[in-house]
Design the sequence.
């Protein structure tokens, strides 16, 4: 018999890819494999597959019971910019149009990988997975430096306070409930990058991530 399900569950993802237990609901869902145990705890490492995806909250009337036994762990994101920062990309089923647009933009922005015009998505997943591992806490590359002026809208960066979204010429502080504390983004300011570089190149090549409405304020 399973124990009572805790509330909130540890299934909300922050821009660093960490799983939080917070009451706020996300605008997107997704997964990176089965991470939970029979007691609704996160018993595994942070993934069981290299295909980390972001999905719509509803699709063809399908319904799921969160953290069901032997099923993937449902994760939730404030917005798509957060999901991309954490290392997720659009699902090829419920988000086919976004998947196709992102794949084309990623290939256009990352020609150095010589993948051709239509490689299997697994090859792109492998590149993004390598970037995720490189920026993990145990890696010396986890605090990769960047200049704000070199980054496209949708990039997530960090400082000693937390994570910030670059949007519309301003940096906006990430919280589970939305963005706060907007400040001017000076192009010559140095910062620490969160979003994988190959994903940022896809943004620069035309993919525009969806952001929470609070990103448009002030």
Sequence:
């Amino acid at each position: 018999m399973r124990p009572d399900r805790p509330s909130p569950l540890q299934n909300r993802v922050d821009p660093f890819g960490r799983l939080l237990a917070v009451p706020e609901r996300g605008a997107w869902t997704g997964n990176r494999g089965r991470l939970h145990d029979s007691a609704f705890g996160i018993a595994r490492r942070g993934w069981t597959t290299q295909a980390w995806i972001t999905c719509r909250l509803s699709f063809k009337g399908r319904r799921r019971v969160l953290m069901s036994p032997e099923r993937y762990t449902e994760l939730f994101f404030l917005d798509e910019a957060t999901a991309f920062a954490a290392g997720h990309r659009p699902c090829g089923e419920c988000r086919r149009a976004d998947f196709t647009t992102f794949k084309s933009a990623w290939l256009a922005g990352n020609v150095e990988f010589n993948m051709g015009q239509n490689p299997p998505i697994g090859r792109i997943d492998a590149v993004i997975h390598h970037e995720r591992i490189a920026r993990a806490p145990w890696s010396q590359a986890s605090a990769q430096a960047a200049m704000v002026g070199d980054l496209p809208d949708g990039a997530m960066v960090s400082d000693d306070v937390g994570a910030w979204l670059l949007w519309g010429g301003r940096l906006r502080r990430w919280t589970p409930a939305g963005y706060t504390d907007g400040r001017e983004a000076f192009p010559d300011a140095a910062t620490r990058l969160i979003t994988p570089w190959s994903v940022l190149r896809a943004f620069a090549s035309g993919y525009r991530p969806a952001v929470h409405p609070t990103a448009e304020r002030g």
